[in-house]
Amino acid sequence: MAYVQESRPVHDVVVIGSGAAGGMAAWNLTRQGVNVLLLDAGTKFNRGGFWSHVKPWQYRERAARGQKPPQFYVDKKEQPYETDPKNPFDLIRVWGRGGKTNVWGRVSLRYSDVDFEGPAKDGWEIPWPIRYKDIAPYYDKVDQLIGVCGGDDDQDSLPGSKYHLPAAAPRCGERLMQKAAKSIGISIVAGRRAVLTKDHNGRAKCHFCGACGRGCDIGAFFNSSDYLLEPAYLTKRLQIIDNAVAARVLVDDKGLASGVQYFDRYTKQERVVYAKRVVVAASCIDSTRILLNSKSPRFPNGIGNSNDVIGRYLTEQVRFHMFGFVPELMGGKTQNDDGIGGEHIYMPRFNHRLPGKRDYLRGYGAQFWNTGAQPGLGFWAKMLPGFGVDLKRDIKKRFPALVAIHPYGEVLPRKENRVTVDGTANDQYGVPVARLSYNIGDNERKMLVDMYDTAESILKAAKAEILPFERGWIDTLGSAIHEHGTCRMGADPKRSAVNGFGQMHEVKNCFVVDGSIFTTASEKNPTLTILALAWRGTDYMAEQIKKGNI
Amino acid sequence: MSSSRRQALVTISSAAATVLPALGQTPSPKVLSAAQFELLQKLTERIIPRTETPGAIDAGVAGFIDASLATDAGRKDRWQAALTWFAANGGDSVETLTRISKETDTEGARHFRLLKGDTIDTYYSTIEGLKTELGWNANTYLPEFKGCTHPEHQV
Q1: How many structural domains compose chain B?
Q2: Which of A161, A189, A281, A437 has the fewest beta carbons under 10 Å from its own?
Q3: What are the structural domains, with CATH classification, of chain A?
Q4: Helix/strand number for chain B, H first, E second
Q5: Cβ within 8 Å, pair A373-B153
């Protein structure tokens, strides 16, 4: 009897990451008959242990007993990254099943052709290789799958959906903001949010506790773990390796992806899995870091990066926050303003419709979270003058009357805004960490003037007592948690890393499907578009597998 | 609301105020000295006093601030410096507090901001501050969310 050398398993597809992008890839491929091995840098979060209904004073009591809520966010000490101390960048990461979708903001806005055609029209950097018509059927499918509530008040900059669940009823403060904005010609529409406002696909609807940021104890908003990975398990074609921190995509001598090197999060042991195809979906910065670290003789600059595009053009959104108190609600009764958590309204981009020429490119929209009677009032209460009985009365009077506006403006992609892995600092597994070099430019500073004017004029139209603000101040770079662009899609292989399906121009069996492939950031929250692009990309991938092309 | 019903509610809330415990029944501090803790209590009560609703002492604000210093050396240093300064500058004197509340760049102003900020953050996260004083009773199960139903607020 001859001895047969042990053969290493070669998986159909390895997916790196379990968030919106990786979850969608795993779900869509397994349901089409493809076997998937998924690497998750963490493990499943215990939904029963979420602190969804722990009131502020109970937090303190629990903490005093040594208890902790689930630790969603990766500590920078555990997994460092480098950033310019003069322009610090906040990188928010969740390792574990579902990634950031466990705690995401749930804003689910379709990109429009105002977004997709923007760069082709204004000539700043490369055009998107797709248009709204290409992605629209996937938006429809995503809306039906995950459940997105919203209105039918769509605009040219905010396409609608036939599949919206009922919109969440606006709070008083939100109605007053809508009314005020309308009086000065600005339209504020129903928010589009991935929250179940009625039972959907066998899932129970939201119970309006407003604590979504601590994780939903019943999964009434989309998270990749419950909505994508659990159904994918049922196909028996999905295998997940926990605590697998992906480091590099391996390349064979033909220049194709052949597997993934990863490290066990806790034992730090190095492991390798082999695959016929690789899907990279570790979120923008981590995917980019993995690609750049995947150096080989064929790709000394990182896999698929002969044109030095990967890592460059990092972009997100610039934002600030303005608050006020509306007279109609001052001194009124405190209401339960929790709703579906976060805002029930949205201000779509409108600057492209205004007469006259702007002195900047692209645009901005606005969100309104925090409106109404909300805990965590210290930030504004401390700004009121004095102390004692008067202060106590002034705080109580304003508590029900808070309104908030948070404009988000698109940041242009720039070559010099980038992620690098120069190897001067390594993580605990010996893998070079990401260095982020990023700043906004003149275009954004000019747009900020408009953004401030708009926010202030809406609050003034509402006759709000506006909380003091510093014009031009912006929130920490990265705090929008909408990183994009570092592995951008495009039709021109010289200027982009992947095609419109996320397939690498240079490495046909390697797909990237997360926010890193966006050509521009737009002013909108990206998760719905990540889901639609990942679905579309992996449809194409499954088709190519069936045809034997990859 | 009818005036008689409003009056009845005022009466009830006054009655509730009378059952609040007497000021000064204090837990023993973990980090601060007894004298520092007593001063801290008085200072927090100056920021948020008992009215018809509980004040900072009723809500145990000083105790929560004291406990928080056990795990944060930076805060502990700032509070030690602040309490030393207050002790040397009239304790919880309303005159001193009024003066430093109007200053911006002085040492006193810095200590006042610490006192006011921590008192506000702590008080309005207690059941007394958030629920009893402000009437917040959210983060709970609701069968439906009606939102704004006031005709005068509609667009």
Answers
A1: 1
A2: A437
A3: 9-48+70-104+223-316+415-439+482-550 (3.50.50.60), 107-131+143-221+319-410+440-476 (no CATH)
A4: 6, 0
A5: no
